[in-house]
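re: the backbone from monday

yeah here it is again, tokenized this time
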């Protein structure tokens, strides 16, 4: 006998502001987004729209092969490089202090840079493996954000606002891809192997990262002219602004202390530079960590026959598992 499970509603509701409708009132759900689901993992699962009747053939049903919490995916993407960075720091500081504290000025230094602790062996291999596992989900998250913002843009009424938001969306998406690619480059091009190229790729990463944060905040301001509509959106926006401000402050300190170290060779200047670098990296991770607030209940879905439902995003669809 087949077990009955709960209905899954993949519809997101947007309410209009008190001053009048800012977005269209017809419900729109991001393509490929599934929320609030209950899944029986002990049976082979097939999903079909409610009301389909028994006339629907078995091959036409939506067969789900994998449902993964998007929040868990984002959490894994964050904790993997963070945990690996901690392991590299502790192990290199204990077992390879002379290698990680060496600088061209040969001045007193107590805090090694990220490039130093991930550029020695065997830490470099551990760091490169973690970034390899980190990069894939980052591209997925960037694409999900693109579709998510596109749905919000389609709900806008003013054509000029839609045009401005679309332009900002394209900028955000490109900057996101550049940032991820630069992170990959700065990881696999070690400062000990090719310092000039490593330095240039690092600058590209810093520039694209800060630009991405700024463009994202600008886009959200266009999409939310009256401010966030829910407490969760407000919390996410507040954290984004805080991490962006922290990144700007730490970047200023990073540049200042790098110049002091490079041209004046001050004692501990490189240590302060490294501290600012860790703050920048942490703020960057924190900014991207707000993905868990933006997609708290969404799921990553791998299914067969899902293309039948892609054009039904403007309809209110209920799903049933049997």
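seq for it, each position gets an aa:
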């Amino acid at each position: 006998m087949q077990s009955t499970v709960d209905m899954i509603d993949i519809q997101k509701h947007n309410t209009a502001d008190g001053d009048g409708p800012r977005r269209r009132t017809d419900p729109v759900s991001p393509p490929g987004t599934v929320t609030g689901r209950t899944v029986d993992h002990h049976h082979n699962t097939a999903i079909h729209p409610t009301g389909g009747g028994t006339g629907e053939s078995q091959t036409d049903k939506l067969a789900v092969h994998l449902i993964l919490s998007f929040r868990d995916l984002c959490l894994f993407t964050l904790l993997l490089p963070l945990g690996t960075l901690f392991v590299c720091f502790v192990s290199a500081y204990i077992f390879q202090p002379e290698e990680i504290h060496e600088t061209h000025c040969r001045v007193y230094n107590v805090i090694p840079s990220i490039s130093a602790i991930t550029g020695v062996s065997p830490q470099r291999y551990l760091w490169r493996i973690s970034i390899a596992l980190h990069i894939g989900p980052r591209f997925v998250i960037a694409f999900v954000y693109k579709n998510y913002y596109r749905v919000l843009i389609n709900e806008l009424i003013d054509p000029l606002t839609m045009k401005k938001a679309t332009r900002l969306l394209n900028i955000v998406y490109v900057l996101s891809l550049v940032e991820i690619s630069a992170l990959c480059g700065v990881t696999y091009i070690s400062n000990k192997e090719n310092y000039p190229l490593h330095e240039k790729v690092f600058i590209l990463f810093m520039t694209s990262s800060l630009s991405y944060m700024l463009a994202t905040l600008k886009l959200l301001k266009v999409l939310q002219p009256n401010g966030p509509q829910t407490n969760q959106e407000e919390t996410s926006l507040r954290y984004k602004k805080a991490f962006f401000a922290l990144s700007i402050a730490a970047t200023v300190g990073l540049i200042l202390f790098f110049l002091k170290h490079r041209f004046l060779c001050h004692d501990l200047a490189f240590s302060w530079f490294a501290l600012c670098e860790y703050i920048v990296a942490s703020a960057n991770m924190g900014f991207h960590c707000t993905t868990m607030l933006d997609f708290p209940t969404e799921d990553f879905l791998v299914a067969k026959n899902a293309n039948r439902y892609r054009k039904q995003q403007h309809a209110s669809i209920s799903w049933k598992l049997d």
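The two ends are 10 Å apart (CA to CA). Strands lie at 8-9, 34-35, 46-49, 62-69, 298-304, 318-321.
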